Amino acid sequence: xxxxxxxxxxxxxxxxxxxxxxxxxxxxxxxxxxxxxxxxxxxxxxxxxxxxxxxxxxxxxxxxxxxxxxxxxxxxxxxxxxxxxxxxxxxxxxxxxxxxxxxxxxxxxxxxxxxxxxxxxxxxxxxxxxxxxxxxxxxxxxxxxxxxxxxxxxxxxxxxxxxxxxxxxxxxxxxxxxxxxxxxxxxxxxxxxxxxxxxxxxxxxxxxxxxxxxxxxxxxxxxxxxxxxxxxxxxxxxxxxxxxxxxxxxxxxxxxxxxxxxxxxxxxxxxxxxxxxxxxxxxxxxxxxxxxxxxxxxxxxxxxxxxx
Length: 308
Ligand code: DON
Description:
3-stranded antiparallel sheet; 5-stranded antiparallel sheet; binds 6-diazenyl-5-OXO-L-norleucine; alpha+beta; about 45% helix
C-alpha cells in the first residue's frame, strides 16, 4: 500500500487496541531514578507526523513523560549544527554493544566515548554545547520550535537524576581526567541531568523529530536546521547506536532509525515519509520500552515502512 493512501489513524487505533490488553504483562519501570519509579506502567501512547504534515495519534499520546535519552538526538543535532566535523574529534561513531551507562570502554579507549548516544557520549556532547553558551536554553528552544509548544524540564525528575547519578558523575570525571571535557564536570552533569528530565508527549516528540524525515528541514517552516548529509548521519547513528546493546535486535525486528529513553519512549524515523513516537513505561532488560518495541514491530509489519 502506498504511504499516501494509508489510513494512519486507523493503523494507530488498531495498534493501540492490540497493545492495551498487554499493559502490565512484561518489563519493569526504571527503578534507579526514584521519580521514574513512580510512573504507572499501565500507559501506552503512539503518534506520528508525515513529511507533508498529516498527523495521527492513539492511546495516551497526549500524556507527558520523561524523554530521557531521546534528548540525546536533539543535543547531537545542536552540536553537529554548530561544530560540524570537529565534534568527532572527541566522540566516536561505533555501536558500543554495552549497557548505556557502562564505564568499561572509556578506560581502554582513553576517554573517547564510542558514540553520542551512550551516556558518556551524551555527556561529552553536553560539554561541547556548554562551551558554546546556555546549553539548557538552547535545547528547550530547539524542542519548542520543532514541536510548536513550549517545552519544559520536570524539576522533580532533574533533581532525582542529580541525587542518584553516581555512574554519570563517574563517567564525567573519568572523561575530564582524559581531557575529553572542557568544562567543570558538575556543570556538564547539570546540563545532562536537565536534558534527560525534559517532559514531552508522543505527539510533541513525533513532531519534533520531523526534521529527520525531511533531510534536516524544520517540520513546520521548512528552513534548514541541519544539512541533508547531517540528517542522514543522525539517522545512521540512531539505527546503529540509538537503542544501545539492543540496536542489532531493533534493526533486525524493525529496521528504522530509533532512539529510546528509560522513561519508556522510543522515537523512530521513516526517511522521506514520517516520524513517530511510541511510549509505554515498562522497560526490557536493555532499558528499552518493552511494549514500545512491540508497537513498532506491529507498525512496520502493518505498513511495510522500513529502511530495509
Ligand atoms: O543517564 C541516565 O541514567 C538517564 N538519565 C538517561 C538514560 C537513558 O534514558 C538511557 N536509555 N535508554
